[in-house]
User: Which sequence fits this backbone?
């Protein structure tokens, strides 16, 4: 199994009411057409796809937790290739909270939870550029993925991937269909993960 970790805002989705691209209103969002195409291509090739998103607007009071959850549900409705989404509501680094949401694979019901971080002895924060959400998504896989890729549109995405020691691709290149990224062996990846977890 292969694991595609993907940033949301500016990478696969944008706010249709917001020139900066962030999704502020759950219903005012769209998926970039070339991102939809790539999501389907990865999905068809057997990759599990997990969204990874900073949502510091919650801590800042710009947006409610409930609105963000509604927005995530709408994102998965628009891009059903996404299995689950992790987001960090913290604005203050390093980020000490994570929520996970998605449709349950057994019942099809929508669900969300505040992750119990006691289960993840990760010695880092969760708000990107900290690598906590990336390491958590890998750790949560039922079986260890043979390949992992993180795609994002901002320097903190690239830094988070580097801190987790996983391959990174810029959103623009990924959406254009580039398959060229710095691969590292699964063995190297897991040695590094065991160091960090
Ligand atoms: Mg982004």
Assistant:
């Amino acid at each position: 199994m292969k694991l595609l970790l993907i940033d949301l805002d500016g990478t696969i989705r944008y706010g249709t009411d917001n020139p900066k691209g962030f999704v502020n209103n759950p219903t005012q969002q769209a998926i970039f057409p070339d991102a939809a195409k790539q999501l389907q291509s990865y999905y068809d090739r057997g990759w599990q796809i997990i969204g990874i998103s900073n949502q510091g607007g919650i801590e800042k009071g710009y947006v409610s937790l409930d609105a963000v959850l509604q927005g995530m549900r709408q994102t998965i409705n628009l891009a059903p290739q996404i299995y689950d989404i992790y987001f960090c509501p913290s604005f203050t680094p390093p980020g000490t909270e994570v929520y996970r949401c998605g449709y349950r694979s057994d019942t099809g019901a929508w669900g969300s939870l505040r992750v119990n971080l006691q289960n993840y002895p990760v010695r880092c924060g969760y708000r990107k550029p900290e690598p906590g959400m990336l390491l958590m998504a890998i750790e949560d896989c039922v079986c260890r993925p043979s390949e992992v890729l993180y795609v994002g549109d901002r320097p903190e995405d690239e830094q988070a991937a580097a801190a987790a020691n996983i391959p990174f691709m810029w959103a623009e290149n990924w959406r254009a269909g580039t398959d060229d990224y710095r691969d590292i062996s699964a063995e190297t990846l897991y040695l590094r993960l065991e160091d960090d977890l």
User: Anything to note?
Assistant: Residues 26 and 68 are 7 Å apart (CA to CA).
